[in-house]
Amino acid sequence: MTMAFDAGGDTSDEALMVLYANGDRHAALALTQRVTPRVLAYAARLLSGDRAEAEDVAQETMLRLWKVAPQWRQGETKVTTWAYRVATNLCIDRQRAKGRKRQMALDDAPEIADGAQGAEDRMQDAGRMAALEAALAELPDRQRQAVILRHLEGMTNPEIAAIMEIGVEAVESLTARGKRALAAVLAGRKAALGYEDDSHAG
Fold this sequence. Notes:
- With 202 residues, this protein is mainly alpha-helical.
- 65% of the residues lie in helices and 0% in strands.
- Helix 2 runs antiparallel to helix 3 and helix 7 crosses helix 8.
- The longest helix has 22 residues, at 25-46.
- The chain is globular, with a radius of gyration of 19 Å.
- The N and C termini lie far apart (57 Å).
- Mean pLDDT is 79; it is low at 100-117 and 197-202.
């Protein structure tokens, strides 16, 4: 007998993997709802905002996850660490196939959720996100991966080391260099980020 799982529930990703491997399709649904949005957002950032490519990467990552489910052993690695590692490699393959990464087009700027913000605020937020995405696209691939994982995905250095298959010291070095490079790029884009108008913000 199977039971429905809430994607935001207490059951760990790893336990859901084992349940899915044992034939529980509700566990697979819950895990998909948890992991897919994170992998999609991460891939979109690595691919300079290319949503269609990112969706392909997310789908392929999840397909591979289901294939390894029968051999999954709890305690060896986290599901998210495994998924980010696969997504990273898929993104790198796609970037190599394209030659070099493209600058993000304005049309690819992430949509801002419609809420209580006024149109001007939403445009400024969208502009800031677009500027950040464009600046990230200018970083060397490995620095961009480390910065995104650390500061946008909230991963710890050991988790990033596992995803990128490098040492923790190398992660710290990449993150530090990436942050400096990002700061240098963004320093020349304060107007685009809307920071010049902050003096009269209330």
